[in-house]
Automatic annotation (TrEMBL), chains A, B:
Protein name: Magnesium transporter MgtE
Source lineage: Bacteria, Pseudomonadati, Pseudomonadota, Alphaproteobacteria, Hyphomicrobiales
Keyword terms: CBS domain, Cell membrane, Magnesium, Membrane, Metal-binding, Transmembrane, Transmembrane helix, Transport
Subcellular location: Cell membrane; Membrane
Cited function: Acts as a magnesium transporter.
Gene name of the encoded protein: mgtE
């Protein structure tokens, strides 16, 4: 099929197919060609190959290179390097690239960037470097960036763009369009224009399609809509993203404590924030905190160590429970063989309930007060599956060790532990959320502690009582 | 502070503060007032209270009500009910509401909706109802919806809006603006206009802010940009969302197999898709498939059962390994007490590595071919933490059972199992991904199977050899 393509299409298709392989990863050939050019110091070839790339494509390429090559690439490309790409890579990679650049060069790069991208890079630097870089910027940019950096980390004020279009309410559509045609200093792209009074207080917003549909003499105040959902600059970025997402806003005005317009959160920022937060949730549930794939071995090992230490403590607790029944086990070694099954099934069932609960909490589908319905539901699910697996595992145990008594004991223990799993899986995240902790980060350990302890205690205790040993 | 508020602001603020409580959940008082009005059949009060709500707010309210009240609310509100809200609730809730409506009413509702929302509702209905409803629609709408429904589930064609603005390349900016001012049948909102040739083949796109900056005599073809990232209608929705996200597009053209423009994927659809996919990933990692909080007890129990059954099989496998060493345990019951620690630590470490790997695969940061670096990293992390916990747990065991031998055995087993955990945590998702399976859904069980089996075998086997028993 390829040779039937029209000539003018070929170059475009080639760039794309060269950078990525068919699975969507950076292609080995492309990476190796870049590495060869870097090794040869061939900055002309690099500019030619890399300048046409989109910032996100350049970001992917940077992630595929090793650290020395990343720094060399930035150095060799000089002015032709698109620093926006730094907002597309992991924090560890961004830092390693920026750290290798002299402050003067960082300042020159920052000047080329939109304000939100500039803040993204500046916020990771240490105080001293940041101060020196800011001082090298023109007055107006310095003031704007400094103000954004004064807002708390992960706030809307940090993520907002300080470039926006704002007009007074008494302007006509014609005046507004003429202004946009004449004015050179507009943001690179925008989806709404905002309406402000002389003190910069936010009055409303107009979507661009509304302006295009209106006649020239119409007044802006007549076609604007009130901005019921202005974002306070101090608001947490996740909360701000949720507001924009809930109300399908094309972008949102960010206001300071006096309701003055200070910036705009664009929808692509919202998408970035949402991805970041979803990633955080998944990693917290998996016990790897905020680790990134580019972290060093030591950083990763240290960040996982604390989680494993908590798990070690709870595992020892479970062992203490087993230790209570050492005499029983000594006389009936089948118990040692079977007991991990009870604990493992409980742990899995508890994790299932916990996952559903953590997601429902994140989506605000349940809270501490209206949890009754969910608790009933989960208890019933736990009971149903508890009974199913009581039959299955009970039968396996009875046949394996030729003992109806052992089958009965493990069956009852299974029902008890599945019920405990359901209750722990729902109550632990609910209580953690109520106490202001992130249920995603802490629930896992607590839930499996409960299912281990209850599982071993119920099974070994019942066996000791049933067979009268220990 | 409240009494200093200006009069005109009060009503707006009140609606908001009444619907949600301070934690962002639907407030109990609001829900109870609605429930009272439903019980009294007071449709006038319901219309007054509920009509001002945003579709997403109405969706939250529906989720907070029980099923009978949901259906009654829709019935009592009649024409005043905003059916867009049905796209904001869980599938189970949507179905229960729609199933209670006569087809005639569904057809009337569908006619009021944008095409993507209409498809959202129609796709869940059974074949016969869908056919009857479509037949009640005007010809043009019927054709459009039918075409959307012919695309595969979860494809871009299903999620696209078939309403869009398209103009020929030779039009001027002035002509285009005049057209938008005169034409009544424009989409409710749009972020780009598309450029097509007479056969509807896509030529390019123009962002609205670009039009507003251009002078009236400028030609559209001179200000348009090529749409390098047109989305084939058959493309999976997740892949389409990734393209739009990667290139920060305000919206994307959807084209059929002849490259003719058939619809547009708006950015808010992209956000919905991304949320849905993140939710799916988290639930799959937690072993609850695509379960929703509104699923019935039986549906939930059944969907979790299969996952638990796999886990039961692997738990029995681990028990078989323990069974190999029954004579050893009989002589040294401390082994039974300590063995869950080795398995549990391995399981947790394996889950950590697996979580990092699954996320890196989803973000396309690693693949089968360039995994060498990550495998080295994870092996080193496993070795480091394995050594740390070998010392900690080894010391605990040695003191607890007053046996340096036992401490040494558990320490060595710990290092072996943490290394196995690291390798399983990275290789299993990589291989599953390579085989085309979703690593999020299947990796968990395989990884803990490996860490259980290796953990028990290493610890008990070493003990049998060290102490010469069994």
């Amino acid at each position: 099929m390829a040779d039937t393509r029209l000539d003018e299409d070929v170059s475009e298709v080639e760039v794309k197919s060269e950078l990525y392989d068919e699975d969507g990863f950076v292609a080995r050939e492309f990476r190796e060609r870049v590495e060869t050019a870097i090794a040869a110091g061939d900055s002309e070839m690099l500019r030619e190959e890399i300048s046409p790339l989109h910032e996100s494509e350049l970001g992917d390429l940077l992630e595929a290179l090793d650290n020395d090559n990343r720094q060399a690439l930035v150095r060799l490309m000089g002015d032709a390097f698109d620093y926006t790409a730094l907002t597309e890579v992991d924090e560890a990679i961004r830092l390693s690239i920026v750290d290798a650049m002299p402050n003067e060069q960082i300042a020159a790069a920052v000047r080329e960037l939109e304000s939100d991208d500039a803040v993204y890079i500046l916020e990771d630097l240490d105080e001293e470097d940041r101060k020196e870089i800011l001082e090298r910027l023109p007055f107006r940019e310095r003031i704007r960036l400094r103000r954004s950096l004064e807002y708390p980390e992960e706030s809307a004020g940090r993520r907002m763009q300080t470039e926006f279009v704002a007009v007074p309410p008494f302007w006509t559509v014609g005046q507004t369009i003429d202004y946009m045609r004449e004015e050179d200093d507009l943001p690179e792209s925008f989806a709404q224009i905002f309406v402000i009074d002389p003190s910069f207080k936010l009055q409303g917003a107009v979507d661009l399609d509304r302006i295009l549909r209106a006649k020239r003499p119409e007044k802006i105040e007549d076609i604007m809509h009130e901005t019921r959902h202005a974002i306070p600059a101090e608001m947490d970025q996740e909360e701000a993203a949720q507001v924009i997402e809930q109300y399908d806003l094309p972008s949102a005005a960010v206001v300071d404590s006096n309701e003055r317009l200070v910036g705009v959160l664009a929808i692509d920022d919202v998408i970035d924030i949402m991805q970041q937060e979803a990633d955080e949730d998944i990693k917290r549930l998996g016990g790897v905190g905020d680790e990134e794939i580019s972290d060093t071995v030591l950083t990763a090992a240290r960040s996982r160590f604390s989680w494993l230490l908590i798990n070690a403590a709870t595992a020892i607790l479970a062992s203490l429970v087993i230790g209570l029944f050492d005499a029983t086990i000594e006389q009936m070694v089948a118990l040692a063989i079977l007991m991990p099954i009870v604990a493992s099934m409980g742990g899995n069932a508890g994790t299932q309930t916990m996952t559903v609960t953590v997601r429902a909490l994140a989506a605000r589908d349940i809270d501490f007060h209206n949890a009754g319905r969910i608790i009933r539901r989960e208890t019933l699910v736990g009971l149903l599956n508890g009974l199913s697996f009581a039959v299955i595992i009970g039968a396996v145990a009875a046949v394996w060790f030729d003992s109806g008594g052992l089958g009965s004991v493990i069956a009852i223990a299974m029902v008890i532990n599945m019920l405990a799993a359901a209750l722990a899986g729902i109550l632990i995240p609910l209580v953690l959320d109520r106490l202001g902790a992130d249920p995603a980060i802490a629930s896992g350990t607590f839930v499996t502690t409960v299912t281990d302890v209850v599982g071993f205690f119920a099974f070994l205790g019942l066996a000791a009582w049933w067979f009268g040993i220990g």
